[in-house]
Amino acid sequence: MEPGTxxxxxxGGLIVHVEAERYRIAPEDVRSLIFSGRPAPVTCERVxxxxxxxxxxxxxxxHAAVSPAGRAVVVHTRMGSFIIPLVSFQRVxxxxxxxxxxxxxxxxxxxx
Length: 112
Known about the structure:
Elements (H helix, E strand, L loop, with lengths): L3 E5 L5 E5 L2 E5 L1 H10 L3 E11 L2 E14 L5 E6 L2 E6 H9 L4 E6 L8
Antiparallel strand pairs: 1-2, 1-8, 2-3, 4-5, 5-6, 6-7, 7-8
């Protein structure tokens, strides 16, 4: 089972599925990330029902950035950090692939 999945939306944005959480990257942020290398906010919409009233809020839950080597995109969320090859990220963003797996990013342990 994959720890996470990246999928595209009909409007050109991206959906990041990590376990039970569903995050979004807006279309304009996807373009900025791919073409300019600018970090993109990763947002989450939370809907609440209280006393028959439905309210929702969109919060920034993390960010996505091109790795220093320029060959991968690193997605940081509250659920952890994940990595996807830049080529796979671009294919999903262009709609050439329906989805791509995210791989957990394990922090380096101090070297002896």
